[in-house]
Amino acid sequence: MKKITLLFTLMISINLCVGQVIDVHLHSYTDDIYHGGHPHPAGNIPSPPTAEAHLDRTIELMDSLNIDYAVISNSIKANEKWMEADDRFIPGYGANTEMIPVDEFEELIKNGKIKVFGEIGSSYEGVTLANPIYKPYLEICNKYGLPVMYHTGPPNPGSKSKAKRVFKGDPALIEDVIATYPDLKICLQHAGASFWENAVLLMAYYPNVYADLGVLLWVSPLTQEMAVDFLKRCKKYGILKKVMFGSDQMVWPESIKISINYLNSLDFLTEEEKRMILYENARKFLGLMD
Length: 290
Ligand SMILES: [Zn+2]
Fold this sequence. Notes:
Structural class: alpha/beta
Number of domains: 1
Mean pLDDT: 93
CATH topology: TIM Barrel
Bound molecules: zinc ion
Strand order of the largest sheet: 1-2-3-4-5-6-7-8
């Protein structure tokens, strides 16, 4: 009996990580912007000592976890470095309020060096995506059908920015942008976090609004509780088809695995729903359909 239980447990734990995955929320690094090398307090998650080791470990995990694609963002240089190392990376242009000129932005889209606009972390600078500075960039995204990925929820409290504001992370504040561009696909990253109910409402009301689970699945028991509440409400509203897996591992690659396993452990989701979240929904959002 014990043997059978052991075998069954083994099958489940193998199963936890073998389905195809798309991680829509990673960050790329070069040495000058890498801030790892110290474990994350949540479960003492290790962080590789250098940008190089971090990239290597991320690729190793992508292989073992069956991750077909991953959206990365940070500087253009960091993205280029990662894309040279592995062709599964999809480049996002990470921005707060300081951005490259609009014509350069458009040129990089034409050259395939930007395929997603985001992560946009405007709440770190105390503004939202509805700020007029983003309008010309959104117009271009709309023109080229480029998906937009926007940080929602409070900014990371560890950020040194004095301009950061908790309530600028409420997705309700960007409703005008969502309504102005009905064909522009917008992902509310971290699923609104503390503002998850507003994220659900926007997703239910507007066809162009999606969400990723971001850090919710691994960063603390509180965020995991938000993820569960958010997912249950999405299931009730019939909008799980717009929820995507994104780990936002930052400098802690092991959190990708922790997040996938946590999602797979949620028994109120069917296997099909888990597959949608881990893979299918992102294919649609990113335009990777055959
Ligand atoms: Zn992020």
